[in-house]
Specification:
By secondary structure, the protein is of the alpha+beta class. The chain has one domain: Alpha-Beta Plaits, CATH 3.30.70. Strands 2-3-1-4 form a four-stranded antiparallel sheet, with helices on one face.
């Protein structure tokens, strides 16, 4: 099985319940095609580098999963027609970095270090 990291960027006006639905929808696509979700991260609302489809911000959702190329094709086919998404990216990796949380708030990381 190949290892993939997949990130989707949803529109800035998508509600938290819609973000949860998007996460579940794309997780089910991976599982339906014999894939295995290792980790899902919601990075939250962040500024985009440039305006994309009249959006200055986007909600980022990141998946780490194991599977074959068929899963990637199926994900991207569904994402092309999803009106709630702005962009998506899939990267094949050699191993997962499950320890580092790059978009954790500074206050939370300081509190975790104290405990």
């Amino acid at each position: 099985m190949n290892l993939y990291e997949h990130t989707i960027v949803a529109r800035q006006d998508v509600s938290p319940s819609q973000i949860k639905q998007l996460t579940e929808k794309y997780s089910k696509i991976v599982e339906k095609n014999d894939g295995d979700i290792v980790k899902t991260e919601n990075w939250g609302l962040m500024n985009l580098s440039y305006v994309i489809k009249k959006n200055k911000k986007g909600n980022y959702i990141h998946f780490k999963f194991k599977g074959n190329g068929k899963i990637v094709n199926e994900l991207e086919k569904n994402e092309r027609i999803d009106k709630n998404l702005i962009k998506y990216l899939t990267v094949k990796v050699k191993k997962f970095d499950l320890d580092t949380n790059y978009f954790e708030t500074k206050e939370k990381s300081i509190a975790d270090k104290k405990n």
